[in-house]
Input
Amino acid sequence: MKREIYLQMKTLTEAKAIFLDRFSEGYALEHETIPVDESTGRVTAKPIMARLSSPNYHASAMDGIAVRAEDTFGTTIDRPKQLRIGKDAFFVNTGDVLPRGTNAVIMIEHVQIIDEGTVEIESAAYPWQYVRKVGEDMVATELILPQNYKITPFDIGALLSGGIFEVAVKRKPRVVIIPTGSELIPHQDLPPYGPSPGQVIESNSFVLKELINVCGGEPVYHPIVPDIYDQILHAVEKAVEEDNDLVLVCAGSSAGSEDYSYRVIHHLGEVLVHGVTIMPGKPTVLGVVREKPIIGIPGYPVSAILAFEQFAQPLIYQMLGIREPRRSRIEVVPTHKIASRLGLEEFVRVKLGKVEDRIVATPLPRGAGSITTLTEADGIIRIPNHVEGIKNGEKVEAELLKDPQDILDTIVVVGSHDNTLDVLANQIRLHDHNVRLSSSNVGSLGGLIAIKNGNCHMAGSHLLDPETGTYNIPYIQRYLPDVRVKLVHLVDREQGLIVPRGNPKGISSIKDLTRDDITFINRQRGSGTRVLLDYHLKRLNINPESITGYDSEEFTHMSVAVSVLSGAADTGLGIYAAAKALDLEFIPLITEEYDLVIPERFFNEHKVQLVLEVIRSEEFKRLVETMGGYDTSRTGTIVATI
Output
């Protein structure tokens, strides 16, 4: 099947002008309102946890060939390597299940096809290159939305992906949504055991429905259409013939061999734009069929949302003859440098919070498939296509996705990841619904640096000093010599090796990590868990280079547990609560201290005192204890003033 490559992409400004100007006249809509039954605008009555991990299989993130990365090592432009299709390499499209035995994808642009059974590459792949691993977006049992939370259109996608289902309709301009993809499964048809490998819960159409409602339109849902050209062609042709005003074809707009939107629009009418220089959202297709607008919406959730907001949303308001509302903007300072590619206008999702006299912005993961980055985001920073990125400390504007007052009432926590922070976030909302907690996982050392730079109210830390055997204090003295802080104990927790149920490889200690048949998954540099591991390796005189997977990093305990659950690793170092949450086994190694480092200048603020009140409450301690692997006997104690 021929791949449609973007040859003449347009900038966002050019694409909007071409598309909206084409339909600036000629629409006279009757205004009619019907009752709606939607969750958008409703408030959660309890914390909502993900029931399912997403994605639930290792998926190709690019069109290309799937390979075993180790088979490509040593390949260079001077030493190209030929691979046999069906044995050493397998053709895959974006979203395909990774074939058994492979662990990396090479982009089709970097593959030279020699003949029917042979391809050639000129550079090596690294493990998990261009692969969306199981649980990359969300992990079962993780908090999606807290209690007393007003659901937004973005949250619908996150809730559906996590197994929470709500729908809604509202009549005005009729907008047909045609989801395409042979891998999609309606949530109504989901079996009790969840989706099978290769299946994806169809959620984009439900997100688009809510966005259409907010704009004042009426969403019209079309059943899922498989990746069969004639069926997609028929669905689009029928939608155009009926009394509809706008057609959205979901997915099928990229450059893969099964992406049909461009071909369908080109066959039935006129393609106005194929590809827009924005990220996420580049594969968007804009066209007209029988004088009706049609949009090829990208398949990744964040891309789908951004494409809708930039093209469908203004068109619906234009049809209604009313002004499109604009988001509030606010000046923010990123907590670290944000790199960006020249030639693409990038939409970076960020968490925001006021720390002293400035609003700090912490970037969220930038994958277009991670709907939770919009659920968690407070704002969006737009990086122009002529700029390579944003410097550390540079003031920029952010579009607000939340109420500005929410930003002012946010407790910004940066540092080590721990599952108790989810419990803390929800309990804070119960004690004071005006206050919320925003946590970013950058490792214990990263948390101390954030305090030093004035980018947070407190940091989570569990840094073990090998020389003294004490936690956190030596590091605080070393990295924060000019900052007065109070060290508040949150929990004692069990750290150990997480292994699959039944421990099939018979792992019993850190010494086993050097075995040839063991693949390890590590935490990122600067994390307390990484420091703990290195301490034990040094004590046992083990060279890190002897451990397969030592350089493979994850940023949370739950991500480590998912790597073990999915088979990407045989073991990883983490907390007992993460192993228990995913029904994995745990080999305890040490009980460690996890503390909150709080600058004295913030200590008496209402938000900080609320945190102390909550963690000292019996309800918080009870909830933490039920997760397993925690001791709360010293929770809330001021360990030291430094």
